[in-house]
Write a structure and sequence with these properties.
The complex is a heterodimer of chains A (81) and B (438). With 81 residues, chain A is mainly alpha-helical. Chain A has one domain. Chain A has 4 helices and 1 strand. The termini of chain B are far apart. Chain B is mostly helical and 438 residues long. The chains are: A mainly alpha (81), B mainly alpha (438). The interface between A and B is large, with 55 and 82 residues. Strand 1 of chain A pairs antiparallel with strand 1 of chain B, so a sheet runs across the interface. Chain B: This is DEBR0S3_02476g1_1.
């Protein structure tokens, strides 16, 4: 059994996604900032920056997604063969 | 004397007074033309009225007493009125010609002036670059390029290419060089500003080698002021462009990651629109794959919430990286291939694919419930590959993938081809890939 039957069939790129992709493609200039300078407390800062990233890529604690559950079932089925 | 000539004379004399006083802001304001574009109709055309012919700016300035650089300032003021006149008649090509002349002359003047000249020089430089960008986006540019290419091809042969980009870069290099080689070091504070103007131009016209060469020049330049001493708009922009150049060499990727993370930390915390937010998106487009490749960091739910356009476009890719879902990863990357190529990040996603497989193999080993959990039949991995990718895998293909990951030290163990198993190291078979950010 392979993912093409087990996993959800991929949908075509939605209209909303196509619009966003186009905007990201076209808005490729790094703009001139409207302000020349700002103080550290007006910047994104280290704390907020830290919240944007997740270090749990290698953890198995949250392996409870649909894909992993079906992978486990597939491997178990294989074991029993 | 007619009213228009009188107004012209007043204008030149006021200009001259500001220059004599070294009034940086007033001279910059007097040389600016982009902020006057919306009110051009109300500005008299001193070229059409023949005012500059009858009373040349240089003569007017000289008659009011000599000052340093007066000859060049005469040319600058003459160029400025011609520039406004060209803009009034929507002649962009002439406007660019006069704007370039102004940058060249103010650069010459700057060699013998101290720090006060930096702001006027910045104004004329940035406005020239913006004028060229406006022209390029106009329909006039397409028509001009076609007709000129045709003409020049007839004249010089098929190899000729119109090089507005090269002309612009040549002019923009002048103020950069003046500040970089400033012996008094007063004007070095403006180096990053002019470097950014050149970076924007090189990247826009895809002159990546020129951008690389400029980085080398900057790296070997003595006594540059620290980035912390210039306004954040300049330091963030500089770090972004420098990181873009560093990204071209995979061995410099860690440096690029540090520059981009620092650029984002220093970026203004803006509402979800406008230029500043767009710049954060531009930084993150690089940072998402690079932070994964360097530190195995994934974008967090907070990132997706704060940047919905990135969530719509990239969330499924990183979800696939987390799951080890090869099919989803390949399909999602294929869907946005053009975007990734246009934003110069496609190669990072190609480099991320082995990590998706690594994650899949790690899960497969973790889920294995045999007697000896470190000796796992290759069939298990072949099944996992097949399930994840949506196609049939052969055992040889699986062995090749595993061997590649063992070779790159992402998996510790060996393959026993005869017994059709992989023997994983009992200690730490999947060494931690996550490394803390320095």
């Amino acid at each position: 059994m392979v993912a093409s039957t087990e996993q959800e069939k991929p949908s075509e790129v939605s209209e909303e996604k196509a619009k966003v992709i186009k905007t990201l493609e076209e808005d490729d200039e790094f703009e001139d900032f409207p302000e020349d300078d700002w103080t550290d407390d007006k910047a994104v800062g280290s704390t907020q920056h830290g919240h944007l990233w997740d270090d749990s890529w290698e953890d198995h604690d949250d392996d409870n997604d649909n894909f992993t559950q079906k992978l486990a079932a597939e491997l178990q089925r294989n074991d029993q063969q | 004397m007619s009213d228009i000539h009188r107004r012209y004379l007043d204008h030149v004399l006021t200009f001259g007074k500001c220059i004599r006083l070294h009034d940086s802001a007033a001279v910059a304001e007097s040389l600016s033309f982009l902020d006057k574009i919306s009110s051009l109709d109300s500005i008299p055309d001193y070229v059409k009225s023949d005012s500059i012919k009858m009373l040349p700016p240089l003569e007017v300035l000289r008659n009011n007493g000599w000052f340093k650089g007066v000859n060049q300032w005469g040319i600058v003021i003459d160029g400025y009125f011609n520039l406004l006149s060209s803009l009034k008649s929507l002649n962009f090509k002439n406007a660019i010609k006069y704007s370039s002349k102004i940058v060249t002359e103010v650069s010459k003047i700057a060699r013998n002036e101290d720090r006060w000249i930096c702001i006027p020089l910045m104004t004329v430089t940035t406005e020239l670059r913006k004028l060229v960008m406006i022209y390029i986006q106009s329909s006039d540019y397409d028509e001009d390029v076609k007709s000129q290419e045709k003409q020049k091809r007839q004249q010089y042969g098929a190899d000729f290419q119109l090089s507005l980009d090269e002309e612009l870069a040549n002019v923009l290099q002048r103020p950069f060089k003046v500040c970089l080689s400033d012996k008094s070091e007063e004007k070095k504070i403006a180096v990053y500003f002019f470097a950014n103007e050149l970076f924007r131009t090189y990247i826009k016209f895809e002159k990546f080698d020129a951008a690389k060469n400029m980085c080398k020049v900057l790296l070997h330049s003595p006594n540059l002021p620290p980035l912390s001493s210039v306004p954040k708009s300049q330091s963030v922009t500089y770090k972004y462009f420098l990181a873009m150049v560093e990204c071209m060499n995979f061995e410099h990727l860690e440096n690029a990651a540090q520059l981009l993370n620092n650029a984002l930390i220093d970026c203004e915390n803006s509402p979800k629109n406008g230029e500043t937010f767009k710049n954060q998106l531009s930084i993150l487009l690089f940072l998402m794959p690079i932070n994964f490749l360097m530190y195995c960091q994934l974008p967090s739910p907070t990132l997706w919430e704060r940047y919905p356009s990135l969530a719509i476009t990239f969330r499924k890719i990183f979800e696939a990286v987390k799951q080890g879902n090869l099919k989803q990863f390949d399909e999602e990357v294929a869907d946005i291939q053009i975007l990734l190529l246009k934003r110069h990040v496609y190669s990072f996603y190609i480099r991320m694919r082995p990590f998706v497989e690594l994650r899949l193999f790690n899960k497969t080993a973790h889920l294995y419930i045999g007697e000896k959990t470190h000796i796992i039949p290759l069939e298990q991995f072949t099944r996992a590959e097949g399930y994840s990718s949506g196609r049939i895998f052969t055992q040889e293909e699986t062995e090749s993938r595993l061997a590649s990951l063992i070779f790159s030290r992402k998996i510790k163990g060996y393959i026993s081809h005869g017994n059709k198993v992989i023997v994983l190291s009992k200690k730490d078979p999947f060494p931690k890939q996550v490394v803390p950010i320095k």
